[in-house]
Amino acid sequence: MPQSSPSADAPLFIVLNAGSGSSDAERTRETIESVLSGVGRAHRILYVEDARRLHTVAWQAVQEARIQKGIVVAAGGDGTINAVAQVVVGSGVAFGVLPQGTFNYFSREYGIPADTAEATRLLLTGRIRRVQVGWVNERIFLVNASLGLYPALLENREEWKQQFGRSRIVALWAGLATLLRGHRRMTLEMEHAGRLQTLHTSTLFVGNNRLQLEQIGIAEAAALDEGRLAALALRPTGRLAMLWLLARGAFGRLGDADEVQSFSFETLRLSVLRRGRRGGRIKIATDGEVGWMRTPLEFRVIPDALPLIVPADGADG
User: Fold this and answer.
1) Phi, psi at residue 168, to the nearest 5°?
2) CATH class, 3-131+305-310 region
């Protein structure tokens, strides 16, 4: 993947989500200010306390960056990074990340440090690498998109986090509670590689992050390096079997299970069948943020769409 260097004096427009991750937002802001002011780098921090304003503030940051030939930076978890990247894609503006979330799959995939001070210094020394994004019905996703059981799991996990705090242990217990509660199966009609297929499943998961897919043991993770996305579906099964699948995923063996169907693709069109009819809306999660979309759903990959600042000495994977 070709790389280039951003301008050494490009101003930084940093969208900081005060509600992301376990870090104290004010302390994060002070760390960013300390690093950038210490080297005299022009910057502006756009502080977002209400997540509903993320898109508006991101749009403002992109407009200012275009005028001043600057760089837009997202400081938050994968959902915040997605919201800002949604506006950056196609704008001609370079994109930086200061990860503040629980899992930080996107930043980890590209070697961006979890430590805020180190990640801020990377903005000053890194290079630009154009990375692919996934696309579903006019929304991008950097890590994954899903429908069925997985969005329900994410919603329950968010409720647990609000009560018990943000941690991987809380996320795990929320997932267990969701699986034990059960979930209705979906009937999907998928058009892929010139074939039409009917699929009965409790969830469909589309991945655009090699690290996450490798972690749960999906062989199609390697296909992302070939400009593709990876999909996996769980065949309908009982609650105990679902718990067993969760355990297999934790040990990186999910792809070996008979209940899992996986494949890679560049484009995928699917409809949800309800009582033999197509159409309607369905709940879908993109990078951990849950919303509604009208069907049919059109998934595709967009190569080289996001000019991301990565470590200068990082492998060009």
Assistant:
1) -70, -30
2) alpha beta
